[in-house]
Specification:
This protein has about 250 residues and is of the alpha/beta class. The chain has a single domain, classed as Ribonuclease Z/Hydroxyacylglutathione hydrolase-like (Metallo-beta-lactamase, Chain A), CATH 3.60.15.10. It has nine helices and 14 strands. The protein has a six-stranded mixed sheet, with helices on one face. It has a six-stranded mixed sheet with strand order 7-8-9-10-13-14. Strand 1 and strand 2 form a beta hairpin. Helix 5 runs antiparallel to helix 6. The radius of gyration is 18 Å and the shape is globular. Bound molecules: zinc ion (ZN) and fe (iii) ion. Fe (iii) ion binds next to helix 2.
């Protein structure tokens, strides 16, 4: 079994600790900080083998060096980001497969938020660690990529099984949902999800992971083929990329 522990840090970041119970192998995804990870490792009695980074932003790689120094773990990150992610030991490219004990993860390149962004898909655990590419009801801002690139990246995620759990790197769900309602006010799945999300946040609980099917039903960045959405933003009959581009533009100004 692959145990997954969510560690909330900073204002709204999530770090994930992954542990294959059969082999004892352990990885951490996007350690913004080292200390909360070291504390949790100690609490669980686990030894850290790998850091998996999705992209170079400091709130995803800030703990790399200290974790290496204190645990002897190795860092996996995109080859293209080797010179701007601290301490990379093993560079990976789109389509590569890495293993955490018995669990294989496929690396998918998802440029858009950054040019070198990658996500890790654990098919056997039905889990996707998608960093800042896809958020619950949102997607990453386009800092280093075009809307077309981000749209292509999201198509790769859309193609995964609907039951895949989406482990994104930030608790942005409630704010994303408020925007989503402005572009698809009549979407009942979205209205229902917002009721759940609002309740979870009142209780100070995490809304992550979500399920991919839930995102397909509620996330405006995955819903460019919704006629209601197209009408609402005056893009009726637009190409999928042009509808996505307009949703992204509106969110940037929301
Ligand atoms: Zn980022
Ligand atoms: Fe981030």
């Amino acid at each position: 079994m692959l145990k997954i522990i969510q560690i909330p840090v900073l204002t709204d970041n999530y770090i994930y600790l992954l542990h294959d119970t059969a082999s004892g192998s352990t990885a951490v995804v996007d350690p913004a900080l080292s200390q909360p990870v070291l504390d949790e490792l100690k609490h669980q009695g686990w030894r850290l083998d790998w850091v998996l980074n999705t992209h170079h932003h400091s709130d995803h790689v800030g703990g790399n060096q200290e974790l290496k120094a204190k645990t002897g773990c190795q860092v996996i990150a995109a080859n293209s980001d080797k010179d701007r992610i601290p301490g990379v030991d093993k560079g990976v490219d789109d389509g590569d497969v890495i293993k955490i004990g018995q669990y294989a993860a496929k690396v998918l390149a998802t440029p858009g938020h950054t040019s070198g962004h990658i996500v890790y898909y654990f098919a056997d655990a039905a889990a996707l660690f998608c960093g800042d590419t896809l958020f619950s009801m949102g997607c990453g801002r386009l800092f280093e990529g075009t809307a077309e690139q981000m749209w292509q990246s999201l198509q790769k995620i859309k193609a995964l099984p609907g039951y895949t759990r989406i482990y994104c790197a930030h608790e942005y769900t409630q704010a994303n949902g408020r925007f989503a309602l402005t572009v698809e006010p009549e979407n009942q799945a979205l209205q229902q999800r917002m009721i759940e999300v609002n309740q979870l946040r009142i209780e100070n609980r995490s809304t992550v992971p979500s399920i991919l099917q839930q995102e397909l039903d509620t996330n405006p960045f995955l819903r460019e083929d919704s006629l209601a959405l197209q009408r609402q933003i005056n893009c009726e009959g637009g190409t999928p990329v042009s509808v996505f581009t307009e949703v992204r533009r509106l969110k940037d100004h929301f």
